[in-house]
Amino acid sequence: MKRRHFLSMVGATVAAGVTGCASSADDGGGSGGIPAAGTNVRDVPVGSLGSTGSRILLGRDAGGLYAMTSVCTHNQCDLSVYGTLSDSGISCRCHGSGYSRNGDRVKGPAIASLKHFKVDVAADGTISIDASTVVDATVRTAVA
Ligand code: FES
To answer: Which of 22, 24, 53, 66 is the most buried (most CB within 10 A)?
Structure first.
């Protein structure tokens, strides 16, 4: 069965709770984190990267939309909570790993990049993410 995340259901997903390596973070996630992503393509501007609240990040660049896991590949801290987003990328505050805004690993201790997932856009602009379908990190969903 496919795991499809409709961003309009983000609230329900958040209520399920966020786990990870919170105990190893030095500040308990009180600062930083990644802001919420829009649920409709009109609310996701080019250059944005946000959290869907379901352990998935949604970004948009000149090529279109992309989605990737927000789970740090080192020890599974949720970057939505324990990540710090900058123009150059994402830093994990748990142990210092770094990723580009496209999820490419740029600094350890993480040894792998963030997996990307399939993104679809409905006619009304609603975005859905199929977390059961891993795609190459170069894949983008064009925005009309
Ligand atoms: S969980 Fe260790 S660096 Fe992210």
So the answer is: 66
**Is 48 a pocket residue for ligand 1 (Cβ < 6 Å)?**
no
pTM for the model: 0.82
Q: What are the pLDDT digits (tens) for 80-132?
A: 999 999 999 999 999 999 999 999 999 999 999 999 999 999 999 999 999 99
Give CA–CA dist 66/41, Å, rounded. 11
Provide the CB-side half-sphere exposure for 66 (13 A, CA): 25
Q: Is the CB of 63 under 6 A from ligand 1?
A: no
Q: Which domains does the chain have, with CATH numbers?
A: 4-135 (2.102.10.10)
